[in-house]
């Protein structure tokens, strides 16, 4: 259920194409994140190590792209804030999932326990608001606050749906929309609002769609592996009781999957279930749906009133979501 | 480390003295909390059960008292927001402390696991911001955001200091200030700001002091018991590795306490350590310091520019902090 593991090729493709403003914006975000995490003397080695562990900064990139060259400091702050919310949600997700590894490294949950992981996540989360409050970005605070409520709803939905093999496609998309689509959407809206307040419906849909595509492809990767690429065991979602679209799709042709006892799974038997899911062709099917969603996202950009460079860059990052999984 | 267990006598004393506006304000807060917890269809039985479990709404009461009869809807929203932050921090604290019981009832941590407790806390926390955002209370958002960062710093400080028998008094007060004093302070500042923006230095100090006194008395209660009153085992803090002022004070006259192996404590041996702390007279000493802090808080109200009724009510609630422990 938790995205982002591979190398940052799509990001490079976008920064190579964009003007220097994007590279500068991303650097400003990076500097701002380092300051934010360490702010007020509240030095937290855990938060700093999460920051250093990297990530592609996909969400800040979306903020900056949707803002364009004139986004300025407000876009940078929004990028920092969105990434902090993302980091907070990763740390708390690892508590929810009792995840031992992320990107091949021990999680805060694993190295410091659920208590400390909860506290670190809280700190990151609170700091996300602080960054916007300090900048006086009222509309952005509203957007992040709504987003945070939705993320928490998504977390709860995941807990409630855990070990439910009969999770419907609708429930999967609702959960993914809340847990992943919503923050991608917020990134786009926040960026766009720095230059065109109140004109973000189309851009919000773009963000939501690529977030869903991102999640679907990430869920495929959890089943397909390989471990060397994902930095965690195959079937980690299933081991957590999290049913995803590949499973739902596979169970349509192999209804025996609905008899699997998720509570009894270990890494070996999870591997077998992954093979069984892959054997149904469900992975290709979900990949194709994700690609379709990306195409929809790009096509939907028509009425957004973007200039050519912006549109090109957004298409590029949308394609990047697919590329990193191919 | 986690306050609030006994019956609501101090609250009753204050509401009996105040005009009808206070009772109405508290009812509006209660109604608003019920709506907030259930908002957006994100029904969470856990959050609702926490709300129903009660609590004295000490912080909303402070908001309303510092606002006075003209606080209006903004004071009610601030009261709701502060209580939501408090509830969120209780739920996350129970994850940190792996606490089985609160007010004699199983915690969300115990009944639903750390994952769900983390998610419920996140939801409450995000909702605290939403309430203020919806009301357009910009200054309040700033205050709550700063407070939230401080609470998280306090949580982390508690984790870092866990099982450190040599915790200094200074560290104890810094941690208590962040974890408890800060939110009491925010409650007072938020209330005051609804009617007198920018005039909250004195009132902020009042809040901080009674928060610290509250924490000290709560820490005494953790050592003194009895279980029937606290709804949890004596020495729960010690069992969590949390060193508090009674322990620090006791170790000054009984340095053998510094040799206790906190990691090896069980309920029986924790009970013995509690008796040993009590035997030094440290409990009376800490109680006296708390009472002194309350007196300081009341005396400090002089330059606050309050009318007579407001001052009387604030003195009454300050005394109430002591009364609930006597």
The greatest interface here is: A-B, 39 and 39 residues
Distance between the termini of chain A: 18 Å
Under CATH, the topology of chain A can be stated as Farnesyl Diphosphate Synthase
Sheet bearing the most strands of chain A, described?
2 strands, antiparallel
Low-confidence parts of chain A lasting 5 or more residues at pLDDT below 50? Answer: 1-8
CATH architecture of chain A: Orthogonal Bundle
* SS content category of chain A: mainly alpha
- The number of strands of chain A is 2
Q: Classify the helix fraction of chain A into a percent range.
A: over 70%
* Helix-strand sequence of chain A: HHHHHEEHHHHHHHHHH
User: Mean pLDDT of chain A, nearest integer?
Assistant: 87
Q: Helix count of chain A?
A: 15
CATH class of chain A: Mainly Alpha
Major beta sheet, strand line-up of chain A: 1-2
Oligomer: homodimer
Shape of chain A: globular
Alpha-carbon Rg of chain A, integer: 19 Å
Q: In percent terms, what proportion of residues of chain A is strand?
A: under 5%
- Domain module tally of chain A: 1
What is the CATH H-level superfamily of chain A?
A: Farnesyl Diphosphate Synthase
Please give a quick description of this structure.
With 326 residues, chain A is mainly alpha-helical.
List the defining traits of the structure above:
homodimer; 326 residues; mainly alpha; Farnesyl Diphosphate Synthase; two-stranded antiparallel ribbon; 15 helices; 73% helix; 1% strand; globular
């Amino acid at each position: 259920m938790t995205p982002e593991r591979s190398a940052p090729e799509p990001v490079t493709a976008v920064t190579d194409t964009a003007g220097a403003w994007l590279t500068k914006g991303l650097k400003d975000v990076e500097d701002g994140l380092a300051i934010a995490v360490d702010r007020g003397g509240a030095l937290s080695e855990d938060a700093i190590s999460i920051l250093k562990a990297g990530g592609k900064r996909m969400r800040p990139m979306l903020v900056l792209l949707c803002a364009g060259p004139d986004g300025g400091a407000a876009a940078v702050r929004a990028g920092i804030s969105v990434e902090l919310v993302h980091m907070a949600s990763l740390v708390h997700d690892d508590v929810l999932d009792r995840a031992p590894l992320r990107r091949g490294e021990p999680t805060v949950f694993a190295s410091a326990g659920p208590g400390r992981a909860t506290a670190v996540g809280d700190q990151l989360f609170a700091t996300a608001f602080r960054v916007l409050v300090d900048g006086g970005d009222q509309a952005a605070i509203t957007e992040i606050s709504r987003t945070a409520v939705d993320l928490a709803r998504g977390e709860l939905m995941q807990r409630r749906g855990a070990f439910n093999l009969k999770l419907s496609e609708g429930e999967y998309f609702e959960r993914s929309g809340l847990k992943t689509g919503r923050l991608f959407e917020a990134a786009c809206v926040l960026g766009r609002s720095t230059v065109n307040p109140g004109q973000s419906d189309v851009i919000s849909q773009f963000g939501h769609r690529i977030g869903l595509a991102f999640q679907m492809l990430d869920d495929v990767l959890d089943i397909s592996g390989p471990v060397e690429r994902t930095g965690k065991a195959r079937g980690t979602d299933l081991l957590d009781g999290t049913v995803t679209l590949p499973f739902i799709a596979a169970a349509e042709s192999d209804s025996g999957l609905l008899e699997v006892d998720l509570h009894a799974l270990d890494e070996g038997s999870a591997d077998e279930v992954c093979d069984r899911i892959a054997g149904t062709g469900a992975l290709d099917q979900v990949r194709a749906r994700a690609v379709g969603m990306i195409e929809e996202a790009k096509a939907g950009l028509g009425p957004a009133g973007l200039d050519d460079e912006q549109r090109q860059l957004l298409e590029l990052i949308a394609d990047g979501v697919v590329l990193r999984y191919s």
